[in-house]
Amino acid sequence: MTGEIAQSAEVEAIGSDATLLLVDDDAPFLRRLGRAMEARGFEVEIAESVAEGLAKAHARTPKYAVVDMRLQDGNGLDVIEAIRERRGDTRIIVLTGYGNIATAVTAVKLGAIDYLAKPADADEVFAALTRKPGERAEVPENPMSADRVRWEHIQRVYEMCERNVSETARRLNMHRRTLQRILAKRAPR
C-alpha cells in the first residue's frame, strides 16, 4: 500500500504531460535511467546522440528532458536550445561527467532548470525534474576540493575563450598539451 501511495505522489508531481526525453551516449546508463523514470510515471523517449535528440525533440517536444552535456557527435546544449525554441515550458536538466561552473551557467542561460554531475541516480534526477519553482536544492555537505576549484577555474577560462584550447592555454600560462590532458579528464571531486 505504501508503494502505491508513493507512486501516486510521483505521478501527481509529474502532472498530466509526462513526456520525457533522455539524451546520453552512455547506453547502459541511458537504459537504466529510462526504466527508472518509466517506473515513476514518465513516458520516456531515449536518444544516444545530438542528431537523434534533435530529431526526437522536433517530432514530439517533451515536457521534461535530461540531456548529457558532452555527446559523441557534439554538444548537448544544441538539444537544449532546440527544445527551448519549440516549447518554453519544458523542464530541462543537464547531466554531465564534466561538470563545471561555466557550462552550468551556459546551460541555465539556454533554459535548463538544473545541472547534475554524474553519477546521478534516478532519485536525484526525479527530484530535480519535479522540483517546484522557487524550491531550493539541498546544499552539498562537502566543499569543493582544491583540485576541483582549479578545474572550475580552467573550465571558466576555457568557456570565456569560446572553447579555444590554444587561447585558453595562453591565458592560463600553461602548455597546450597539458591543458588538453586536463580537459579530457573528468572533473575531480
From TrEMBL:
GO terms for molecular function: DNA binding. CDD domains: REC_RegA-like (cd17563). It comes from the Bacteria. Keywords: DNA-binding, Phosphoprotein, Transcription, Transcription regulation, Two-component regulatory system. The keyword Phosphoprotein applies. Residues 19-133 form the Response regulatory domain. One of its GO terms (biological process) is phosphorelay signal transduction system. The keyword Transcription applies. PROSITE patterns: RESPONSE_REGULATORY (PS50110). The modification 4-aspartylphosphate is found at D68. Pfam families: Response_reg (PF00072). NCBIfam families: ActR_PrrA_rreg. Member of the two-component regulatory system ActS/ActR acting in acid tolerance. These data implicate that a two-component sensor may be involved in pH sensing and/or response. This is Acid tolerance regulatory protein ActR.
